[in-house]
Structure formats: C-alpha cells, structure tokens
Design brief:
Mean pLDDT: 84
Structural class: alpha+beta
Number of helices: 4
Radius of gyration: 16 Å
Distance between the termini: 26 Å
CATH topology: Lipocalin
Number of strands: 8
Largest sheet: 8 strands, antiparallel
CATH architecture: Beta Barrel
Length: about 190
C-alpha cells in the first residue's frame, strides 16, 4: 500500500540551529541503536530531501562492536572513504524523484542511479522515503538494493540499506546517515 504525500508532513518540526545529532554522534550507534532510532524517527515532506547531502555508513550488523566496530567507524569517517553520499532531485510537490550515489574512486563520480518515492516501510509499515535501485540502468546485483529513510533531526536522515531476497522483507545490510546541512559538490546525473 502506497503512503500518501500528506503522510510526510513532519509531526514534530525541529527549528533550524537546534540539532541534537550529527554524523559523528550517529556514527557511535550500534545497529540495534540505529533500529531503535529509525522506529522513533519522523516522516518528512518528500520533496525536502534534495541536493547533495554528505553521507556516512553508520553500522553494519555483526560488525558494529568492539575493535571491528571501531575500525569500521574510522574507515567510514575518513575523507578518503569511497562512498561520499547521495544526490537527489525532485520537483516541488512531486511524488517521485531521482538520485545517484556519489563515490570517490581515483576521481569523484556518480554511480548507481535510483528512484525515490514516499511509501510505507516494508519492515514496520510506517511512512518512509524509499530509495529504489530497481531501474534498467543498474546491473542485476545493484537492482536488488532498496533503502528506507526517515528524519532523525533537522536536516539529518537515517537510512536502512537493504537487499531484496526471495523473502517478503529485504535483508538488512547496513545503516547510513545523510546530512542535508552539509552539501557536497554536485555531480551530474539525469534528474
């Protein structure tokens, strides 16, 4: 069942400048803490996530604690890390948008386009922002990727990165965050 656009009006708008979280503070969360925060996160106007927000991988289930977790957090926080974030485009009032991942691999470029739309979460049924890689431009393996995003603070979004399987609910692969208050250099993409 598709959620309606009016479902994405913030229930508790946060005033600019009163952010309580950052990519750095979120990077300390375990996968379990990300799950709890995602459940409590709020929906948002679909066309408000546009531009080139900075991104960070937060946690990978089973690799989010101890020395392994510390190494992963340091690696993902490094400016040399390959994935830099996602770029989004949507017309005001639109119910579907487009985007692409920003990566750094010898030179900065864009890879793996996606479409975006408001929907009900495949995990808990509540409103979320879908990032869907099932489009013809992507190779079959990438087309299995499906992300869900909710807002956790002013301009700060938490994402559940999943892979579609033969089961009804996709498999959780990783948690990521997007900081729309920190915009990266634009990349070219069909949007």
């Amino acid at each position: 069942m598709q959620a309606q656009l009016h479902d994405f009006v913030p229930v508790n708008p946060v005033a600019a400048g009163t952010r309580q979280k950052s990519l750095d503070s979120m990077a300390r969360w375990t996968a379990a803490e990300c799950e709890r925060m995602f459940v409590d996160a709020e929906p948002f106007p679909f066309d408000s996530l546009v531009g080139h927000p900075r991104g960070r991988v937060l946690a990978i289930p089973g690799k989010d604690r101890g020395t392994r977790g510390a190494v992963m957090r340091a690696l993902h926080a490094s400016p040399a890390w390959i994935w830099q974030g996602k770029s989004f485009a949507a017309l005001p009032g639109a119910v579907e948008g487009v985007g692409i991942n920003r990566v750094r691999w010898y030179w900065r470029r864009a890879l793996f386009p996606f479409r975006t739309y408001p929907t009900a979460s495949v995990v808990d049924g509540n409103p979320c922002f879908a990032i869907d890689y099932d489009i013809p431009q992507n190779p079959p393996r990438v087309r299995r990727i499906y992300d869900e995003v909710r807002r956790v603070d002013h301009g700060l979004y938490l994402g559940r990165g999943m892979a579609r399987t033969s089961k009804p609910t996709p498999r959780l692969v990783l948690w990521f965050a997007l900081d729309a208050n920190t915009q990266d250099a634009p990349v070219e993409f069909d949007g």
